[in-house]
Design brief:
The protein has one domain. It is 61% helix and 5% strand. The chain has a two-stranded parallel ribbon. The protein is globular.
Length: 84
């Protein structure tokens, strides 16, 4: 499938990122794959990034997702969204 010349712009809320982090086979993860492939363009705001950091820093989220370290949430994942 070819990449669209003008991919549709999308805004994902925090739950899409959380679900994709929890399950890399989820529809949310597939949606992030579409961002990576250029099929859709991700639009993010500072408010969404702040919410992501707050949610990813919650102890219950960290307990449920042990691979979600401070480095991953603050440096990798948030940096990835900024690049889009």
């Amino acid at each position: 499938m070819s990449r669209p010349l003008n991919p549709p712009a999308v805004v994902f809320d925090c739950m899409i990122f959380l679900q994709a982090t929890a399950n890399d086979e989820s529809p949310a993860a597939r949606a992030l794959d579409m961002v990576d492939s250029g099929d859709i363009k991700l639009c993010v705001s500072e408010q969404i990034l702040r919410e992501l950091r707050r949610v990813f820093d919650r102890s219950e989220v960290r307990s449920a997702l042990p691979g979600l370290t401070t480095f991953v949430s603050n440096h990798c994942f948030v940096a990835w969204t900024r690049e889009r």
